[in-house]
Amino acid sequence: MAKDMRVAYLLDFYGDLLTDKQRDSLDYYYNDDLSLGEIAANLGITRQGVRDNIKRAEAVLFGMEEKLHLAEKFSKIKDGLESVRQQIDIIDNKNMRVYRSNEINESIKVILKELKKLNELND
């Protein structure tokens, strides 16, 4: 079985929707990099049972993402926040070199405070 590392990412978003064995199977396989045999021993099931759990769970994760797009939206928000942060740095640097405006400094502080809150929500 070839590993699709998107599954580990989707597991963070939709893992609670899986059965315990499905979630554990994916976690062992993708996050802990265990073999099917090692997972089978840990869960007390056969290698085929592990493989079936993984395949079913992957289908659930991809199906949920196809319908809800939460991981895709999260990634876009994270990229957007980083872009805003970079633009703030540009404005701050120009203000320090050219304008030296206290009003701009205060506005930057407010924006950075709000950006920090958004980043904390997104983590």
Task: Provide an overview of this structure.
The protein has helices spanning about 5-15, 20-30, 35-45, 45-70, 70-100, 100-120. The chain is mainly α. It folds into 2 domains: about 5-70, Orthogonal Bundle (Arc Repressor Mutant, subunit A), CATH 1.10.10; about 70-120. Helix 1 (about 5-15) packs across helix 4. The radius of gyration is 22 Å and the shape is elongated. The model has no long low-confidence stretch (mean pLDDT about 95).
How are the SSEs ordered, and which strands pair?
Blueprint: H1 6-14, H2 20-31, H3 36-43, H4 47-68, H5 70-99, H6 102-122
Biggest beta sheet attributes? none
CATH-defined topology of the largest domain: Arc Repressor Mutant, subunit A
Structural class, please?
A: mainly alpha
- Strand portion, in percent? under 5%
Based on CA atoms alone, the radius of gyration comes out at 22 Å
Query: SSE order, as H and E?
Result: HHHHHH
How much helix, percentage-wise, in residues? over 70%
CATH class of the largest domain: Mainly Alpha
Coarse morphology: elongated
